[in-house]
Amino acid sequence: MISMLALLLTGGIATAQSLSVADVEALPGETVTVPIDLVGGKDATYTAFQFKTATAAVGITTVDCAPSAEWKKATGVAADINTDSYTNFSSSEAIVSGNTKGLVTVDFKVDASVALGTYEVTIKDGYFGYGTIDDSRRDNLADVTFKVNVVSAHSVVLDELSTVAPVAATGVNVTVKRTMKAYELSTIVLPFAMTGAQVQAAFGADVALYDFAGYETEEDVDENIIGISIKFNTLDVAAGMEANHPYVIKVKADVTSFTVEGVDIDPEDDPTVAAIKRTKKQWSELVGTYVANTTLEATNIFLSENKFWYSTGLTKMKAFRAYFDFYDVITEIEDAYAPIKVRFDFDATAIDAIATGKGAVEGTFDMNGRKIEGVQRGLNIVDGKKVYVNK
């Protein structure tokens, strides 16, 4: 199959030129759009681009081509595929110099009869021409090969370092890059639901899930807030996880990523989602985020190393995590960085932790998180550090 694209371009600097094409996924019966980038070359002078496509797979064919969005801004752009499978572009104006990423796109149709697997497509015998097209005014291109992966379901990667919010997709296999340490309480929020079996397959059969259930404040005799008890309900893992709902989770083996197959990604429009929908009377909640580098305000508290920490107001959070917004509590504290006591309260079983502006933990605790008067035999937590006593 031969495709020919005529590009009207002006002026440019001659450098080594090549094509760049990324691998793509397609379902049987699907048409996939493949961007072709021009790297180097006289990107402001070329007036023609010709190539052949070759594939060993029967049933993968070229069906359409289109210019880049920038080139479409030029007047009189026209494209045509004739009966000989030649594709021609022409324009009455030049493409803006330098807009060579996604210079053109080519649509490949994968017939429904194509078996699942990986197929190579080669763009070969290509050249860019400029001025009068003859052998002396062509820049020949090396062949470039890319892969068409024919799959039963598309794959999506959600990365905790990504600043791009996830988009909706149906029936996809999702890999989530989300790190969690064993035996530490973490937060998690996902834009898709998981069954109980999927939760256990991803995080282990002994994973624990908790749901935010509100809070209570502790006050002294002068009605000054000196502590917060954050309440959680222990959930039945078999019930699974809802989409767009933040949870507290504890795994018993380190997690760096996990994959869930055949799910529907359906994120809310806002890249942050709350466990409790805020009302005029409710100003405290667990809020999840789908984008990295989310800035936590000074009224926010987050979990790390089994402790609560105050945000400095500049603290950045990775994606697929959640933070506690205690606006109505923190704003009532005269010293926002005072070491007020914060407690985990799981089904009325409390574990103390201390949150301060610098994240320091003051006091002595046993390994169950209970505050004790002095160190005891075995491991102790003293001012946030592990201390072993053998006596």
Structure write-up:
The chain is mostly beta strands. It has 3 domains: 2-150, Sandwich (Immunoglobulin-like), CATH 2.60.40; 156-358, no CATH class; 361-391, no CATH class. The protein is 4% helix and 46% strand. The chain has 3 helices and 32 strands. The strands form 8 sheets. Strands 1, 3, 5, 10, 11 and 12 form a 6-stranded mixed beta sheet that branches. A 6-stranded mixed beta sheet has the order 15-18-16-17-27-28, with no helix packed on it. A hairpin with a 2-residue loop joins β23 and β24. The longest helix has 8 residues, at 196-203.
What topology does this entry show?
Layout: E1 2-5, E2 18-20, E3 24-26, E4 31-39, E5 48-55, E6 60-67, H1 69-72, E7 78-81, E8 87-90, E9 104-110, E10 117-129, E11 138-140, E12 144-150, E13 155-159, E14 169-177, E15 185-188, H2 196-203, E16 208-219, E17 225-234, E18 247-250, E19 258-265, E20 272-274, E21 284-289, E22 294-295, E23 300-304, E24 307-310, E25 316-317, E26 321-326, H3 327-330, E27 341-346, E28 349-354, E29 364-365, E30 371-372, E31 378-382, E32 385-389
Parallel strand pairs: 3-12, 13-14, 17-27
Antiparallel strand pairs: 1-5, 2-4, 4-9, 5-10, 6-9, 7-8, 10-11, 10-12, 14-19, 15-18, 16-17, 16-18, 20-21, 21-26, 22-25, 23-24, 23-26, 27-28, 29-30, 29-31, 31-32
Q: Show unreliable segments.
A: 1-14, 276-282, 354-361
Query: Taking all residues together, what is the mean pLDDT?
Result: 76
Radius of gyration from the CA trace?
29 Å
The proportion of strand residues reads: over 45%
Derived from helix and strand composition plus strand pairing, the structural class reads mainly beta
Overall 3D form = elongated
Helical run tally: 3
How far do the termini sit from each other?
Answer: 83 Å
The portion of residues assigned to helices is under 10%
Main β sheet profile: 6 strands, mixed
**What's the total count of β strands?**
32
* Overall structural domain count: 3
